[in-house]
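Slide 14.
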Amino acid sequence: MPPNTCNIALFGCGTVGAGVASMLLGRQGAVKERFGDRLELSHIVDKRIDYVREEVSPPDAVQVTDDLDGVLQNDDVDVAVELFGGIETAGELVEKALRNGKHVVTANKALLAKEGDHLFRVARECGRSIAYEASAAGCIPIISALREDFAGDRVQSIYGIVNGTCNYILTRMTEAGLSYDRALQEAMDRGYAEADPTLDVEGRDSAHKLAVMARLAFGTRVELDDVACEGITHVAVEDIRYARGLGWTLKLLAMGIRTGRGMELRVHPTLLPHSHPLASIRGAYNAVCVHTETAGEVILTGKGAGRWPTANAVVGDICRIGLGTYQPQFSALAQFGEVDRVHPVDIDDVRCRYYFRLSCMDRPGVLAQTSGILGEENVSISSCVQQDTGGEEGEHVPVVFMTHTAREGDVRRALDRINSLDCIKADGTHMLRVQQIRGESTQAGGA
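Slide 15: predicted structure.
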């Protein structure tokens, strides 16, 4: 092999790993025509040796083995690509690789969200680097944008649709009127959702990705407990329909926002104005909107999951390490060194607009009671619409409220009091947060 060859060991050859192998071997993409023999896949480490040989059909020059430690101790290996997933085994692998003089490429957002601070410290001590473009948003180059393009700018906020499963489900609920359960089943049938989709639909996957992005964007250490997290499992198709009529589109949004009170870090279903570009992101696509002090609003969009988008991001990192362009940035940027723990704003202190639907008894005085409680709790009503269900007087009917900007703790306290009224069916109360992204038109929803 040429003296400047970068030898790559691939750990884990599942869906994404097989894609990475195919690209490095020149069967997909343009690695071979652009880099020739400079990047060489030398090892594939996986317990399923026969499966790997059948799935990838590697040439004889590629050693397929289940001997993890043997490969990590091999001085000829320059880059370890961790695609095992999970935390414990993957964490041990990454640390051993670094201490054995190898650079690391990973797509493991859960590992970085939990152990990133420790692993970055080890990497710097060992004079190695960790690249992780694929950990945040598939093939969307948000990590490299934060690391390179905005390196000299101050990021004010990030808003991301970073989970394709949830975006597909909400798109189908919005466009086809499917219930959550039906949309989830369709996502599973189409391969957009795992057999156990809990990590995705409860918002934890998005929270991991937000923690990963926030370190680079804001130069602060974020732990999962710092992120207020709520998934889409309780979203009702009726609320999507009612909110659309008022000018809003529902997305699962991951948000990091600088404020004078600290950093808002939250993941939850969010109503966006129809006119904002994020509202138009459909299906399994992802998008990230970044606001910086000098560049203003920048939006990146693309496929957020799947074999090829994720493999593309992994291989991009391998190429940067192989060319030697990544290592100087990793060693120079303060975000990869010692950073302070974030000071998160408590979710009760978040201030935004709110949508909520009450199931109210259709009789005189009910709206006056609810409005009075909202006023007592410092929640100002922007609009109130009783939805026509064709029912008889005395039945419960849905009433939709939009508020002006309010404090979340006040809104929750008001809804608790309202739900205790005998004219309100408490299990019919649904609340959604509304986000007027900076720079967006203020016309939607009567804002």
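Speaker note: The first strand starts at residue 6 and ends at 11.
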